[in-house]
Amino acid sequence: MEACCCNLEVDVNGEETFMVDKTVITHYSNKFARLFGKSGGATGKLKVIFHDFPGGAEGFELMLKFCYNNGTADISPSNLFLARCAAEYMEMKEPVADVSNLLELTEKSLHEINYWTWSDVLIALKQCQNLLVLDCSEMVEKCLDTIVGRLVLASEASPCPSTSSTDSSWIRFSCDSKSTESVKTSFTRLTWWFEDLLFFSPLLVAMLVKSMLARKMDHVLISKFLLYYQKAKFSTSTTEEKSKIIEMVIDMHYDMDLSCVPCKTLFGILRVTLGLNISKCSRNRLETMIGSQLDQATLDNLLVPSPYGISYLYDVNLVLRFLKAFLRRGNGSVTPIRMKKVASLIDLYTAEIAPDPCLKISKFLALATALPDSARDSYDEIYQAMDMYLEVHAQLSQEERVKICCVLNYEKLSPQACLHLSQNKKFPSKSAVQALISQQSKLKNLLHVTPSTSSYNDSPCSSNGAAQKVKKDKTSEQVVLYAGNFDLATDNEKLKAHLQGMQWRVMELEKFCRKMQVQMAKITKSKASGNSYAKSLPKLCS
């Protein structure tokens, strides 16, 4: 370049200053053409200062080479995005004298991406990420689609049966060592690329996963990659960066088939978020995913410590949100089996947190009443939780105790639980009476079945017919099933003895009930305000 041609000084982002020929640059760049067109016939040296030139001095120098080489440049994967960004910034979009502009050169180079090596594609994406130009969506998506396409081909060439499983472990060890090595080799073939993509930013990973989902890649494999990425990046990330990473991991899992994401995995993600300030949207998505699989959770999964500033030992509000998500996700179509599993889990959880002295009655009742009555075959576990709660919260008023007892379905309490409740001083007297009445009613109903079952001892066919008929009566179902499982001719004596024992128990309960009536009558005489309750009590126990 001759000295007389260097009539323009260009400061690029404060990194370096270039002396260039204004005429040559203006010939290819519309940006410079407009700039100097406004300056009119200015003479002497001019100076242009760029503060945000993409790629800095390196990008500007690449653009200069194109201009001084008569519109030619060596475009490769290592400088493709650099050239593209420089061309767009300098508005080098129109051909000059039958010479392709710089933007066209980059597009031609991109068309040859199918011939690039795996390393070439990664180098291009790394440069793109360093330039912070992920908004070049067309070029970035082209590179990502190339990566996904090659991964799909690789997975099809080396299928691994374990990727279709939601088991937390991919490798199922075999007694045959050769078979085990074969599984390990298949596993390695499928995950060899995990390490290569760790330089991706969370935004680039999100774009990659979306492309994978569009290409129907195995969701289990994608989930494994996301968890591997999260774990690897956390070791060197700041708190803010960790929040962005885990938000991306949650949002990507939300778009997957949940049957491919184990409940254990979701609770693992939840544990990671406890110390991070993630967005409300991502947190809601995670809770919704967990709630939809709540029947697969364990008690340990639910024992999440309360957030800072909350007095409860465990995060009860979180579990209530899980329950809400479980019921909402089912849209009324949750199967009875799943509902019963969740009910059993919640009863265990309620019993676990009941001894917490800081647990408010409103939270306890919210847990106990969150599920419909049909979800429980037995109320024994919830009764035990109530017993512990009342033991710890002895300061509760009578009204509050009555509220708690209203949750119970006395018909679904076992005889042992009813007997325990009737003698439990922590519960209101009315609840004890209701328990006795319920138990007395059940035993009487069972005894009424005796004549109808004993008359069918002669014929097995008659016995089966009687069983089908009586089975419709829910109150006598236990006796019918007992008779159907054994030969009535041989076990008749045992059945009679069993029924006699039950009859004796009814008599004992009636005696206990009468004693309680007398005691309550004495109490009510000393309290004028209790007259109405004393009158109603004999009716309840009759």
Automatic annotation (TrEMBL):
Domain NPH3, first and last residues per copy: 191-442
SMART domains reported in the protein's UniProt record: BTB (SM00225)
Topology with respect to the bilayer: Peripheral membrane protein
Keywords: Ubl conjugation pathway
Recorded GO CC terms: endomembrane system
Domain BTB: 6-70
Intracellular or extracellular location(s): Endomembrane system
Biological process per Gene Ontology, one example term: protein ubiquitination
Pathway: Protein modification; protein ubiquitination
Predominant cellular place of this UniProt entry's protein: membrane
Family membership noted in the UniProt record: Belongs to the NPH3 family.
PANTHER family with a match to the protein in the record: OS12G0117600 PROTEIN
Name of protein: NPH3 domain-containing protein
Origin species: Vigna angularis var. angularis
Lineage: Eukaryota, Viridiplantae, Streptophyta, Embryophyta, Tracheophyta
Gene designation per UniProt: Vigan.06G145100
